[in-house]
Specification:
The protein contains five helices and three strands; from the N terminus they run αβββαααα. The protein has 114 residues and is α+β, with helices and mostly antiparallel strands. Strands 1-2-3 form a three-stranded antiparallel sheet, covered by helices on one side. It is globular and about 40 Å long.
Length: 114
């Protein structure tokens, strides 16, 4: 799964018309992930991302943007770094910080959802 998202990242870039935005890390200062979501009602209609980091960061962000599209906000917020690691099937040693960074970006965007 990770190679698929590394070789063919999906949902990259800012989302025009996004209703929610979150970030983990500091853009321009080391690894970071930005997430944009378009939410209608309590459903995520579209999710996109921008990341600066290694291939594992790209794979993690691409995966989660694809995974949450069409899901409820509650379902997106219930995802954990363990879920992302399991779905990627492989996270190289030293890159274990990538899945949690993506989860934090999602939480940053959706944590205040009401």
């Amino acid at each position: 799964m990770a190679l698929s998202h590394i070789n063919n990242p999906r949902n990259v870039g800012p989302l025009e018309g996004a209703t929610h935005y979150g970030v983990a890390g500091v853009p321009g200062d080391g690894p970071f992930v930005q997430m944009w979501f378009m939410i209608e009602g309590k459903t995520i209609r579209k999710g996109t991302y921008k990341t600066y980091g290694c291939p594992t960061s790209i794979a993690s962000a691409s995966l989660i943007a694809e995974l949450v599209t069409g899901k409820s906000v509650e379902a997106a917020l219930s995802l954990t770094e363990t879920d992302i690691k399991a779905l990627l099937a492989y996270v190289p040693e030293g890159k274990e910080d990538c899945p949690p960074r993506v989860i934090h970006a999602v939480q940053s965007a959706l944590g205040g959802f009401s």
